[in-house]
Amino acid sequence: MLIYFITRGFPDAKEPTWGSFEFDQAKALVNLGHKVVYLCVDRRFRLFVRKIGFSKQIIEGITIYNSYILPNVLVRKLGENILYKFRTWQLNMLYKKAVKENGSPDILYSHYLFVTQEAVALKQKYNIPLVAIEHWSELKKEPLTNRVIRYSKAYQFVDQLIVVSKALKKTIQEKFNVDSTVVYNMVGEEFQYKHAQPSSIVRFVTAGSLIPRKGFDILINAFAKTQLSKKDWQLNIIGAGSDKEKLQAMIEQAGLKNNIILIGQKNKKQIEDIYQKSDVFVLASRSETFGVVYIEAMACGLPVIATPCGGPEEFVNKKNGLLVPIDDVDSLAKALEQMFSHYQDYDRQAIADNCKARFSSKVIAKQLTGIFEQVIANTNR
After folding, report:
1. Which of 14, 16, 53, 206 has CA 20 to 30 A from 47's CA?
2. Which tens digit of pLDDT belongs to each residue from 97-113?
3. Which domain holds residue 226?
């Protein structure tokens, strides 16, 4: 099967997590014997030097066609209609070049609503079936922005909509009256259980963008409220973002600068190595569409502390961790104390095995393949 991914971008050395969910799926589908071609219209505004124009490269067997001319923030000043035409023009140029070199796709596969509304233009112009997958956090916000409402019209034109959690399926059904199929996010093959490494302290770890939605402020306040001796624990926070200075100030004000460390953004191999040297994963997120970082930690055998924020409640249970209410500092502090005392009671091998059985790249790629095949069969009737 020849699958054209329509995506926001792909991970590179400077931004190793950008587009990583999509790229993991692409690699998994290639491993099943499919051919994957990437079409990326880059919309970001970044300060470092960038190559303007159309480019092509091959990474891990995936041919990537990329376009960068102007960022959204500049073009949007001319109006949303101009922005849409500008982006669909770029996407169409990439598509024509890709078809010339690789042939017409069997199916288009778009990630995120803001990309899907542009992919619909390709579907309609070339009569190619389109499957869209949704995991955009903007859909969980109240109220919805006018932009999200405008983009949501695209759902009516896809041949199959996939969502990454039951909670997101319910949200889209209630807000847009659109049905969907649940296929969970996958865990990358980088994340494996390699047996716990002993330590004289309990090593907590968390990961995510340093933004309010991830609840790192709640986590810092909860640690400050515990009765844990400072000499017996440490928390590493993996990630970068706009709240870095605010969080560092909170850490210092709480007198925890030797316990809670902001270690910055890391690539997947580095994250996996940190997990191997950790004992517990904790993230007090306020909202998720799934929560890939939780299953990455679980794939390494870590018990987790999570919130029922739109994804974790579907896979966190008493055998692999604890669930605490959102924005509840007291409950989180108690959970941290409980996990501190009992993290060794969890079967790390069983946590990792169960995670892989549900979320491995092979399992999820087979589910996606089945959906693609059914959509193509229905289109050809």
Report:
1. 206
2. 999 999 999 999 999 99
3. 202-359
Residue range 330-341, pLDDT digits in tens: 999 999 999 999
Nearest-angstrom CA–CA distance, 260 and 251: 7
Let me know: does 127 contact 95? Beta carbons within 8 Å. no
Q: What is the 3-state secondary structure (H, E, C) of 68-131?
A: ECCCHHHHHHHCHHHHHHHHHHHHHHHHHHHHHHHCCCCEEEEECHHHHHHHHHHHHHHCCCEE
Amino acid in the structure at residue 145: T
| CA–CA distance, 36 with 102 (Å, rounded to integer) | 10
- Residue 137 has which token pair? 């956090």
Q: What is the pTM for the complete model shown?
A: 0.92
- Does one domain contain both 256 and 336? yes
Q: Same domain for 106 and 236? A: no
Highest mean pLDDT among 54-68, 92-106, 189-203: 92-106
- HSE of 282, CA atoms in CB hemisphere, 13 A: 34
User: Could you tell me if residue 303 is inside a domain?
Assistant: yes
Examine the domain organization and report whether 213 and 262 are in the same domain.
Answer: yes
The greatest distance separating any two alpha carbons of the chain, rounded to the nearest whole angstrom, comes to 67
Specify whether 18 is located in the same domain as 154: yes
Residues in the chain: 381
Q: How far apart are CA 323 and CA 321, in angstroms?
A: 7
Number of structural domains (the chain) is: 2
Rounded to whole angstroms, the Cα distance separating 94 from 57 reads 13
Query: Position of tokens 């870590």?
Result: 302
Question: Cα separation of 237 and 250, whole Å?
Answer: 13
The CATH number of the domain holding residue 354 is 3.40.50.2000
Contacts of 271 (CB under 8 A, 6+ apart): 207, 238, 296
Contacts of 74 (CB under 8 A, 6+ apart): 45
| Structural contact between residues 323 and 308, judged by C-beta atoms closer than 8 angstroms | yes
Is 179 in the same domain as 295?
A: no
